[in-house]
Amino acid sequence: MTSDSGPSPARSRRWHDLDALRGFAMLLGIGLHAALSFYPSAWPVQDAKASADGFLDEAVLAVHGFRMPLFFMLSGLFTALLWRRRGLRALLGHRLRRIFVPFVLALLLIAPTVDWVAERAVQDQVVDSGDLAAAAYLGHEGAVGTMLDAGADIDAAGADGFPALYLAAVAGDERMVGLLLERGADPNALTAEGMAVDAAAYFGREAVGEMLVAAGSRDPRPAGGTWQDIAYWALGTPVEAGLEEPEPGPLAWLPDLHHLWFLWFLILFVLLFAPVASLADRLRERRSPDAPRRPWVGWLMWLLVPLVLLPQLTMEGGETIPAFGPDTSITWIPDPSVFAYYLLFFAFGALFYGAVDRSGVPLVETVARRWWVVLGLAVVLFVAALEMTFREGGEWHLPASSLQVGYAWLMIFGLMGLFRAFLSGEHQSVRYLSDSAYWQYLIHLTLVIALQSLVRTWDLPVPLKFGSIVVTTCAILLLTYQLFVRYTPIGTLLNGKRSRPSG
């Protein structure tokens, strides 16, 4: 098997099956995020019936294990397709319009709504817990205000045995300390570990210490001395306090990318792809049209399949914290392992375009003809990988990671075969859903979190709550797509111009 840059029958037609598969990968993200409130995790909403042994745990891991690898592999394939059909300049213009501009607009208009609804959801859960001290420690001013307005005792100890002001001092939250003092918190309230001012000194919170002393707290500084002269000054660490205070990076002032991280990765991948494509164009100009195909391109493509194991082995701290599938990186400077992991899938997709078998037939037309066998084997690998991943001890880390990588690749090839078998022709309804998937994925997270928060305490079966979130979200998003996106400049920006049906 090799790769050829010459004419190919696969390059003269539209790949409806791959369009549908790419849309399917995006829409799966809505279901995945809708399920996370029912699966114990760091998600903003934890449903009252969340359980690690529940209805959705295996489904969450199964989808997470292949969805984004599939998406990035297809993204690499379509990137190479645009380059070969239209040239590098047209490719860059296309990606500027369809990826970079939507990314910037979504970051400005959508990400703040995700922050807002997530903050409200967490606040509601903290209020429901009734733990004023926990709310203060987590910095939820709205929740603290709501509980105090409802008559909560401001100096009462929380679940950890410390009052709100003490924990706010531990966190070094000046705004929260100011709010609690303003609402009447006793700066000299005594705990088993001392007063709030002692916590401020122990964790090196000088500004908070000054606030507490100004409010009437005992001053722990020696006569004529400074905060640094206190014997226990800054002996505590953020980790000891349950806090994380990483050194701010050069882009720390920018907001988190949330679910938009995939667009940022695509932008970076295209920027890496461009010089490689430019070099390939120059080499192709010098190459004789009758020159034989270069088999090393095909060898390189298939070498990428096992290479994915290398970044996978470092996911979630390697052997120390077992986890299934790839990590997520939502910061502007990507985690190197995550970046390398997805870059390999993208590069494979770019090389896969134009790859042919020994008969000269494009591999995209023949891969996983027996898709049912491939998907069946993927299920076997998933079950085995799941069993090994969560076994005690680190001796299973290498085989578990290998099975996870194998599962991802088999799902990619199996789904390509499945979609080719049933959706290779044009289907208007499928094309409509594929077109809408980009819009739905950009917008969905705010709505999903809001609905999760709404049904969080409902006494209904988990499948019914999950289904209602997914159905309601998709129905609203499809309606907005039809009314406000499909035939508007927004739709043109995302998918190209669409004409209204005549008659």
What would a concise description of this structure say?
This protein is mainly alpha-helical and 503 residues long. The protein is 61% helix and 1% strand.
Please explain how this structure is put together.
With 503 residues, this protein is mainly α. It is 61% helix and 1% strand. The protein has 21 helices and 2 strands. The chain has helices at residues 16-35, 57-64, 67-86, 88-109, 111-129, 132-138, 141-149, 164-171, 174-182, 196-202, 206-214, 261-286, 295-307, 309-313, 336-352, 363-366, 371-389, 397-423, 428-455, 462-485, 489-495, and strands spanning 2-3, 355-356. It has a two-stranded antiparallel sheet with strand order 1-2. Helix 3 crosses helix 15, helix 4 packs antiparallel against helix 12 (261-286) and helix 8 packs parallel to helix 10 (196-202). The longest helix is centred in the C-terminal third of the chain and has 28 residues, at 428-455. The radius of gyration is 27 Å and the shape is elongated. Mean pLDDT is 87; it is low at 1-11.
Major β-sheet annotation: 2 strands, antiparallel
Count of β-strands: 2
Structural class: mainly alpha
Number of helices: 21
Strand order of the largest sheet: 1-2
Q: Percentage of helical residues?
A: 55-70%
Low-pLDDT ranges: 1-11
Cα-atom Rg, whole angstroms?
27 Å
Apparent shape: elongated
* H/E series: EHHHHHHHHHHHHHHHEHHHHHH
Distance between the termini: 49 Å
Strand content: under 5%
Average pLDDT works out at 87
